[in-house]
């Protein structure tokens, strides 16, 4: 009996010793380097390394917690470790000014890190760092609309819905979706402003002849953007002066294959089916944060990419490795 009780005690101790640390999920952590920036009065750009095991967001404020506009960032959120840039605009005042960037990691912002910023005062505060241009003495009474507008805010969010009637210029069936090498540009008009998508296959000459199209609603089935088959590309709009930092795509709730639809984010179109078929998460063409994600076989689910290292004004692509349907695509850009 004593031997039996001893065995029970040892088993209980062994179980208890591993429960708190080995069973619970990993706690979010985040760190930044550098932790402080001493900037001259003139505009300057500073590289920052973020180290984290979790998703994170950042907030820019003065020492009183008020929002500020003179500190710019090339991304406002991320997932894991990455590099980023901070741009500090010229100080128009003779007094130094201070700010703090607060990084919050985890679902509830459990882990935090900070960058303290101090910018020197301007020795010539009367000088306008960015003077306004002189007014046009002979303005065009009916100027053409800007084909690629530059929004006035630091962050731009656009949502393109494909569940309704296809817009003019889009292929709406397989028979209409034969594109040349390099694909075709099509316009999506959102709030009166056209935005250019690119629909493409990896290589027409290699047999990938049919590209994506916008399937119209039919009965109770809403419309959707079809990638049709593997090796298809959906190029999302590029905005001058703005870098793409997030793609959120909602599945079209349509089953097009017995396999899970599979997408990643690339910075280019493959030149051949062989090259396209070899694309992996660590391929050079795959954007950081844009590795493969899947939808459910029935077309439900979400693709959510938090991107880093993207360039302003550059077009990026949703690459369909296994065909699927998308109901909407939401894009976030920052200056």
Shape: elongated
Stretches where pLDDT falls below 50 for ≥5 residues? 1-24, 130-152
Strand and helix order: HEEEEEEEEEEEEEEEEEHEEEE
Beta strand count: 21
Proportion of β residues? 35-45%
Structural class: mainly beta
Q: What integer is the average pLDDT?
A: 82
Can you offer a commentary on this structure?
The protein is mainly β and 335 residues long. 8% of the residues lie in helices and 37% in strands. The protein has 2 helices and 21 strands. It has helices at residues 2-23, 273-277; strands spanning 30-33, 36-39, 44-52, 55-61, 71-73, 77-79, 82-88, 97-105, 111-119, 155-161, 184-190, 193-201, 213-215, 224-226, 232-235, 243-251, 262-266, 293-294, 302-306, 317-322, 325-334. Strands 10, 13, 14, 16, 19 and 21 form a 6-stranded antiparallel β-sheet that branches. A 6-stranded antiparallel β-sheet has the order 11-12-15-20-17-18, with no helix packed on it. The longest helix has 22 residues, at 2-23. It is elongated. It starts with a helix and ends with a strand. 31% of the residues are buried. The model is unreliable at 1-24 and 130-152 (pLDDT under 50).
